[in-house]
Design brief:
The model has no long low-confidence stretch (mean pLDDT about 95). It is built from three helices and five strands. The protein has a five-stranded mixed beta sheet, sandwiched between helices.
Amino acid sequence: MVLVLAKASSTDAQAMRKLSDMFVDKFPKGVLFLFGLDGDKISFLMKTARTNTSVDCGAILKTLMPIVSGRGGGKPDMAQGSGTIDEAKMKELLTAVEGAL
């Protein structure tokens, strides 16, 4: 399995979803955690192919929400969320994503 943690150039949800679709087309067994920052606000999504049943993006995202004091949710193949973050919490968030997989 390939895990990619990537920072998007914007927090536009539609653009992030489009990018995540391209990722899944290229890496059907991969998992993408894509995030965008706007000041102290963070928007993110986690996506994998529907056929990748070894990962539940929605369940993983729920474990991340307390880190960013945010909200979100989704399905096993894609979940989205947002919240607030500082530099220390950013490291904690990325470490938690890696640890969940």
